[in-house]
Amino acid sequence: MSSRTDKRPDPEELLRRVQATERRERRGRLKVFLGYASRVGKSFRMFDEGRRRKERGQDVVVGAVQGKISPDVEAILSRFEVIPPIAEHHAGKNYQVIDLAALFRRHPGVCLIDGLAYDNPPGSRNPQRWQDVEELLDRGISVITAVNVQYVREKQDQVERVTGKRAANSLPEAFLAEADEIEIVDAPPDALIGRTSDGSMPDPRRLAELRELALLLAADVVDYQLQEYLDSHGIAARWGAQERILVCITPRSSAADMLRSGHRNALRFHGALLVAYVQQPQLRAQDQARLESHLALARELGAEVHCLKGDDFVDSIIEFSREQRITQVFLGHSGRDTRFGLGRNPVDRLIDAAEDFDIRLFPHREGE
Amino acid sequence: MSPTPRGKLKIYLGYAAGVGKTYRMLDEAQKLRAGGIDIVIGYFEPHGRKETIAKTEGLEIVPRRFLSYGGSQFEEMDTDAILRRKPAVAIVDEFAHTNVPGSENVKRWQDVHVLLDAGIDVLTTMNVQHLESLNDQVWHVTGVRVRETVPDWVVDEADEVIFVDLTPRALRNRLERGVVYAPDKARRAMDNFFTEANLTALREMGMRHTAHEVEEKLWAVPAADESADEAPLEPGAAPPPPARRERILICLTGRPSSANLIRRGKRVADYLQADCLAVHVAADLNGRDAVERHLSFARVLRIETHVLEGHDIPLAITEFARARGVTQIFMGRSVPPAWWNPFSETVVQRVVRHARDMQITIVAEKRR
């Protein structure tokens, strides 16, 4: 049996993809270098890539440079044509705004923008720089840029928990997810220590936590890209690079144990937590209430809750698990002893059918 | 007299040949040399890559040793010569390499341990697919069974793991330009292993694994404000190990799928920071050799192994699990019952029936 099967998308989905592809072909390509702290070498990597592209004959210009420039970056920079950003002053603050008009006129093949997460002053064409970058892309100009995890909006709560600080300016994670390419610039924290310009000592533990955050963000973006690639090529893969845990609950199961364990496992593996229940008609009021409370807990733990339809519990779970690339299914031990029954126990049937995922059986605790 | 402090190990982790691991390592070596550190190349695999070879300029190389095997000459790292030279830092490419038979150590990582024991710091390179615990997943995704593996604990013990990133698109460009392999080999590689889907999945695994290594090291250094078990567990707030340590028991047999079972059980145990034991119940002498192989494989992965005598396998497993405070039993799927006795119970079914108070995981048996 092959682990890949053809998946036929519906016509609307096909149309959406064709349009997306067309749009993408007209658009410039976006490449983002992601780092976890300043000085990990993002800018150097970005300019170095620009240098290599220029040597291969591409038309590369620089659209923005960050404040302090290291000597190795400066050596590369001197070889580029620079279209400097416009310095603006507004309400006591200094701004550097990309000169879109000049860039549109010059219309290079590739534009290097160091520092993606800048705000533009009020009254600008776009409030934020990443939106300027969108416009460059829309006009067919490719952009290579660099950003720190601190500036990704969806990660700012976690960053604040680590550093106690929150950057005022940010960009949405979706902008990174939609990038054609994202590359993580990883370096051990010890390489950064002693490199601060203001003489303060960065805390190695904090740096390590930010580093983990950046690596996981990059992994999530790559996972999204993998899924997009597989979908757009009509490949229904039964594998993934991530642990995905499915907790199957019934009104009578010891759902709290399974959900907490599922939550903990998903966090440890940095994987996904899904919860499924099978719709049953004519559930007794008492059971319905128990099910509702299980589902409430599931949502509280951040699980993605799915209601499965279908006549057969086992078939529904197997089908859903394959579709969702599940790697572990959590299930309660079945309450009764069916040794002498004629029908096969659902747990046994699942075990027989499960080639692609582990099955973890949980003890049934009475009175829960 | 105090013993020599052990050398530090730094691993440059990539996800495929050609992402630039060796280049990054040599770049670091050049910086160390410029800083006056006594550094030598213990082993370097040029693969005919010009930019990489240029990076070795000025670095002292300890000559390789020659070994004959099966009428052919092989070159290996000369560990003794490096020990005699006793530099502060040694560069050792290809950590996962298997030495030619007749060498003192089977694996290069064991040679590296000899250097570390002598107080020499080592910089080395490997790919994520060389990790033992990912072997089955990598095979499932790519169809390639990686033979040169490194036990996970060897990587966990490294002082630093750095992810060397490159986008799959850039890597495939490199292949097309003949930077990585000769044109013929490059074309074959791009059609087989180096497909965009494979590379993307491997890259995601590499990012997630590096994040895991960063997190493991965070746990090793407890934070000042040790939070309670129920505290929100999120990256950026690394979770402390749970109050009650989990203990995983792997039930191994002589069946070939036991290797997969061992890897999977150990991987889950590592991520959950659980103890890991393996047990085999010797009901008869069938398949003794295969069982011995699996037991010694488990010991290489640092799993405590036990062999029990007994005719009632499920009972022996369950009693052992209770006596040892096991919280989770890992089993492979049982051989289906014989046609003449379709309602007889399998070992899995009987363990499930005996151990309703424990978590039992039946590990997937993936097929491609």
Provide tags for this entry.
A: 368 residues; alpha/beta; six-stranded parallel β-sheet; 15 strands; B: 368 residues; 38% helix; 18% strand
Largest interface: A-B, 70 and 65 residues
Q: Report the portion of residues of chain B in β strands.
A: 15-25%
Helical/strand content category of chain A: alpha/beta
Mean pLDDT rating of chain B = 88
What is the radius of gyration of chain B computed over CA atoms, rounded to a whole number of angstroms? 23 Å
Order of strands side by side in the largest beta sheet of chain A? Answer: 4-3-7-8-2-9
Question: Would you write up a description of this structure?
Answer:
The complex is a heterodimer of chains A (368) and B (368). In chain A, 40% of the residues lie in helices and 20% in strands. Chain A is built from twelve helices and 15 strands. In chain A, the strands form four sheets. A six-stranded parallel sheet of chain A has the order 4-3-7-8-2-9, with helices on both faces. Chain A has a five-stranded parallel sheet with strand order 13-12-11-14-15, with helices on both faces. In chain A, strands 1-10 form a two-stranded antiparallel sheet. Chain A is elongated and about 75 Å long. A six-stranded parallel sheet of chain B has the order 3-2-6-7-1-8, with helices on both faces. In chain B, strands 11-10-9-12-13 form a five-stranded parallel sheet, with helices on both faces. Chain B is globular. Chain B has 368 residues and is of the alpha/beta class. Chain B has 13 helices and 13 strands. Chain B has helices spanning 21-34, 50-54, 79-85, 108-117, 135-142, 152-156, 168-176, 183-191, 196-220, 258-271, 288-300, 313-323, 347-354; strands spanning 9-14, 39-43, 60-61, 65-69, 72-76, 89-92, 121-127, 160-163, 247-251, 275-282, 304-309, 328-331, 359-362. Chains A and B meet through helix 6, strand 9, helix 8, helix 9 and helix 12 of A and helix 5, strand 8, helix 9, helix 13 and strand 13 of B.
